[in-house]
Amino acid sequence: MLDSTQLLYPGSVQRYDELLEPDGSIREHWRALIDHLANGGADAARRSVELTRRLIVENGVTYNVYADPQGRDRPWQLDPLPLLIAADEWRTIEAGVQQRAQLLNALLADLYGEQRLIAEGVVPAELAFGHPNFLWAAHGTRPVRDCWLHLYAAELARAPDGHWWVLSDRTQTPSGHGYALENRAIIARVLPELVNELTVRPLGAFFQALREGLMTLADDESSPLVVVLTPGPFNETYFEHAFLARHMGLPLVQGQDLTVRDDTVYLKTLLGLRRVHGILRRLDDDFCDPLELRADSALGVPGMLGVVRAGRVVLANALGSGVLESAGWLGFLPGAAQALLGEPLRLPSVATWWCGEEPALEYAIAELDRLVVKPTFPNQRFEPRFGRDLSSEERALLIERLRSRPYAYVAQERISLSQAPSWRAGASVRLAPRTLTMRVYAIATAHGYKVMPGGMARIAADGVVDIVSSQRGGGTKDVWILPERGNEDLSAALDTLPTRRMRHDELPSQLVENLYWLGRYSERCEDKARLLRATLTMRTSAAVWRNARAQCVRFGVLPKEGDPAESLFDDAQEFGLAADLGRLGWCATRARSVLSAEHWRAISVMQQQFNAAGATRDDPLEALDGLLVALSALSGFALDDMTQDDGWRLLMLGRRFERVHFLVGLIADRLLEGAPLLQAELEWLLDVGGVSITYRTRYASIPQLTPVLQLLVFDETSPRALCFQWIAIRRALAELAQSLGVAPDTQLEQPIACLIDMAGANMAEEGNGGDARRRALSAALAELSVAVGQVADRIALRHFSLMDLDMHTVAS
Amino acid sequence: LTTVRYAVRHETLYCYERRVAHAHQQLHLTPRSFARQRCLEHGIQIDPEPAVRNEYIDAFGNGVTRVELDRPHEQLQVIAQMQVNLEAVPELPVDEGEAWEQVRDQLCYHARTRDQDCLEAMRFKGESPYVRIKRVFSDFAQDCLVSGGSVLAVASALMNKLHEEFTYTPGATEITTPLLEVFHKRQGVCQDYAHLMIACLRSAGLAARYVSGYLHTGAQASDGNPSQLVGADASHAWVSVFAPPHGWVEFDPTNNLLVQQDHVALAWGRDFGDVSPLWGVILGGGEHTLEVRVAVHALAAPAPA
């Protein structure tokens, strides 16, 4: 138990403090939180920080930074302490954001239609026509119910006087609401009692409304298909795309999953083309259609604008909505609100002067010291500059620049951001102030715009400064909106979204391909890990070691030269275990939208542990032990945690095919060699095959070739045996064929029958008879392996072939 | 002044190395009708027959044909044929008209209602995908921007300068060559000349459009001398400048002349990207070869109306 005053920091005179009154006392709506922290004491605080950090890593919440030299996903930064907003204050923000969304929607409709506001001089033509996201190709299009803006985000900051101001508007593909939801899920586990005690307003209904909104706008179909369109795993917020898709039960697709035929968008699925009615896009405006927009975009869908023109798809947000993402508009919004809504703008924007107006330019130059100069358009290469930080030379250069292209710059007042407490759990636990901005979201519904009762607050990485950015390494906070007094939010209990299962005809081919390869790499890693472990264990037995090592070299898991224990972790070894684990992770990333949170966590933890072991390289055997446990868990998830649809069937087929190839590779060639298999080598084989214990319990004798082969090849009850794979493959192929309405692939029947004929034959016999039998078995295995390869190729051709062709543009 | 009638045949043939599985093509091959030009008839034949074909008018008033080919094909042939009447463009005294600074200021934002001509011009004064506005262009244009000079005088001087300092070199650039690279190479084709002139005019705050079309060279040009003009064997491109009170005046910087009665206009936009005659996105196909043939014939003078 701590004294709550010990936790506090001194207030600020220049900034608004979210927690403290000007006299240093705690604001009313924060009291319960602070008391809770004080009661929990230092240990509880440290546990909160630790738990938050762990949940982020385990849930795999990441934010990719292109400039990151490591090229890796960076863990999301989340402060365990939420930002608290009282009910009455929230009402003001909510009404302001609502009105702003409505205004910006009306402005878009005007810019892409009549352009009355430009003609009347309410807004400058330059801001629209000079913006790279003003799409002339979209001019004259009319989205369903004139809804341009389905999802909108406002970036807010609180000035020292306590009022919230809009810093910027996000109208193209606003991001962060998925992170907000994930933040809430994590903080609800860190501070569960408080979430209940304060009856914090839940977020789930917002996402339900977003999905339902798109569904109802999408034509009159009884079951419209709505997809989430992502630029792909390299995008900085890919985590969020996958998370939203999974949360809302919508397929996550990339441009190449979609195709336009006769002014209609289709999804390429396992069952062929399926019409798409709505697209929640995370792809930028100008990348959406290489036919009419950026020709160099391989991410888009050629013909998309034609579909928009024909009114046959709902795009959220409509193409061209990015034109409003410019600070230049801010100063013109009060006039636009009067002209379009006939009412004053409720939520003010931070004071901004667009230099394209002569008086604004002169003012900006005169007041440069207290202003920051920013580019008007997002495609300009110009970092914001603070007037007061410039040398006189830099200042002269900047002024010259402003005068030569005034319309390309805006000058903005600097705002002193407010500060809120964050946990510093060092030697002594206490709170430290961090400056913050807050992103708030609105969505279009049949009953107007609805605002998410929460948001994503971003805090400065260190201390109190006036620029906050995830790109620059700041953190985030969950935002808790407190309920109206006496009117507690009853929907708290309903904060889970009823999951909508993806229909099997909505499985994108590409997703299925990734699942298939996830299956193959999972099995491949398991086989290789077992091979390596058995081999490294055998190091002391010289005769076996030579053979075993040669096998490892053949499988590509060890180099011809060098220390095997060292090369284990070397991902430059093309077919090595480390490289295959990387591929497994890549496939999982691309299939993430259909993996459960636990499934994903198992993969992510497995990779971290292997990387950690690779960093020390202390004990390769221990690392392999750990890895094998984790890989078995993956196989468990595949069996017990996934919907058994066609995607799952292909994942399992991937595993089975891989296992067949591995077993054949392990045994077939060895049988052709003259040298008999001695006991130590048979033990090694059993260990590689993962059946040592089964052998011991079943045969209670030292290993002999015939029973070893029985267990590795012919046994239909041992899950690691080849014939067991066959039974599973046959069933999956039959189910897949039935679901697709085609005849099952029967190519494997004959080679399998041939193989099974040899079950029980004495393979250990020396002399010509034994040699002939071993050769025949080897040949039958090799033939089966080839046939499996062909069946796999046919599956790839049938289900994935739509992806194979390159798309390019031609012009004359 | 007499009306001239032209017949144009524009043939495009793509041969692909491998089969194209599916293609979307967008065609700007319908001649516009405007003050000096009237489209009498036009047609576009496409082989193989498209699965879907539709037409619409784009934001700049151009007729666009969109087609979709859904059967595998190894070549694509497009033949556009048209007949147009061209009126003679009245001789304009280059030094008359509003000063360029005045036009520039008029095109800037003022919080008041604007007339249609001005609004139209405002569409063509900003950056566009193929025409970025860079310092080098305003520096290049500097000595053409004589204080108080008319827009026509500025544009003529600029056209002269471009013609002097740049060399017309077929094959020197491609559609994707950035304009800055063209600028530094000092070589290009008609599309580059047009983009360069537009970039210079826009960097001075003036409005300019990119016009795509054809040039009639015949045995003799309209001035009676044997033709030295370039741009006859393919589609051509030039520039239209907003020059009140004359309205839009067309310049052909590749040939260093004011457009008179030899230029058949197909379409105009901010730059090539808005009006490229044929633009497609294909699936498959591999490498391809492209053949373009353009023939412009003067027909017998039409009977007086």
List the helices and strands and how they pair.
The complex is a heterodimer of chains A (812) and B (305).
Chain A: H1 4-7, H2 31-59, E1 62-64, E2 73-75, E3 78-85, H3 87-111, H4 116-119, H5 125-129, E4 151-158, E5 164-170, H6 177-190, H7 192-197, H8 204-217, E6 226-229, H9 238-248, E7 252-253, E8 258-261, E9 264-269, E10 272-275, E11 278-281, H10 304-309, E12 314-316, H11 333-341, E13 352-354, H12 358-366, E14 371-375, E15 385-386, H13 392-404, E16 409-413, E17 419-425, E18 429-445, E19 448-451, E20 456-459, E21 475-481, H14 509-537, H15 542-555, H16 564-567, H17 577-590, H18 597-616, H19 620-640, H20 646-672, H21 679-689, H22 692-699, H23 705-714, H24 722-740, H25 749-756, H26 768-800, E22 807-811
Parallel strand pairs in A: 3-21, 6-7, 6-11, 11-12
Antiparallel strand pairs in A: 1-2, 4-5, 4-18, 8-9, 9-10, 13-16, 14-15, 14-16, 17-18, 18-19, 18-20, 20-21
Helix pairs in contact in A: 6-9, 14-15, 14-17, 14-19, 14-20, 14-21, 17-18, 18-19, 20-24, 20-26, 25-26
Chain B: E1 4-27, E2 37-47, E3 52-57, E4 63-69, E5 73-86, H1 100-106, H2 116-122, H3 135-141, H4 151-165, E6 167-168, H5 179-185, E7 187-188, H6 190-203, E8 208-215, E9 236-242, E10 248-252, E11 257-258, E12 263-269, H7 272-275, E13 278-284, E14 288-299
Parallel strand pairs in B: 6-7
Antiparallel strand pairs in B: 1-4, 1-5, 1-13, 1-14, 2-5, 3-4, 8-9, 8-12, 9-10, 10-11
Helix pairs in contact in B: 3-6, 4-6
